[in-house]
Specification:
elongated, mainly alpha
């Protein structure tokens, strides 16, 4: 079944490449705006042998990884604290609901004022956007804890942190991993956006330079790189999720199927 799905996926991708090659060749779209896939592939090959490209890729991955790590740690720690400290969840609920809907891109002027075009601007946007993905999932996971298991742990005299470790964390972990997977994708989006708009070093800034210099094939090649990067991050996040939740019923069922 998996082999059949892979074959269908490969066939669909091949058809997409043929369409991307044919549309500009047939004059349906001007090649100045959308070059054929073969020209984009040539531009991509040129990028791969350019040292500046790899430097930009490293800058993007640095901002993505550092921001994601900060957001995940902060989201888990704060989420657990809000859940175990009496009345703290209720006291912060309105503040969370006020801050969470604020678009991260609205913070771009603040990021520029504070950090200019440095890495700090990327981290500010990435952390802010990714943090909420993790925090909300942690709070949902804690709410899903079985009250009977919680009361049993209390009756056996387990302290707060022992209950967190043995009762709360196993229940919340599937939610946490979902939050991390979502945060990983959001972090990449915001890292590229910050580089594209602010001009921070990375693939986004390189895309902006290609666009302003009318290097259209190079621009599309870099966009393809960001797409591949997003795909790899999603696949990696799902792999980590499956390993972390190998004991969970959902993953065992998925493997069995």
């Amino acid at each position: 079944m998996r082999g059949g799905n892979a074959a269908l996926g490969a066939a669909g991708f091949a058809a997409f490449l043929l369409l991307a090659e044919a549309v500009p060749r047939l004059g349906l779209v001007r090649e100045d705006y959308f070059p054929p896939a073969s020209r984009i592939a040539d531009a991509l090959g040129a990028e791969l042998v350019d040292g500046a490209f790899w430097t930009a890729l490293g800058d993007t991955l640095t901002g993505w990884a550092a921001g994601l790590a900060i957001a995940v740690v902060a989201g888990i720690v704060i989420g657990v604290l809000l859940s175990v400290v009496p009345y703290l969840r209720e006291a912060t609920a309105s503040t969370i609901e006020f801050l969470r809907p604020i678009p991260s891109v609205a913070l771009i002027p603040l990021a520029v004022l504070l950090y200019g075009t440095e890495l700090g601007s990327v981290l500010l946007l990435v952390v802010y956007a990714s943090f909420w993905q993790v925090l909300i999932q942690v709070l949902y996971g804690v709410q899903d804890v079985d009250p009977v298991a919680e009361e049993t742990a209390r009756s056996y005299g387990l302290g707060t942190w022992a209950r967190v470790r043995h009762v709360l964390w196993p229940t919340a972990l599937p939610y946490v991993m979902t939050g991390v997977r979502l945060a990983a994708a959001v972090a990449l989006i915001l890292a590229i956006t910050a580089e594209l708009v602010i001009g921070a070093p990375g693939l986004g800034a390189r895309i902006a330079v290609a666009q302003t210099s009318q290097a259209v094939p190079e621009m599309y090649a870099l966009i393809v790189v960001t797409g591949v990067l997003g795909l790899l991050i999603n696949v990696g996040a799902r792999s980590v999720e499956r390993r972390a939740l190998a004991w969970h019923q959902s993953v065992r069922g998925e493997v069995a199927v």
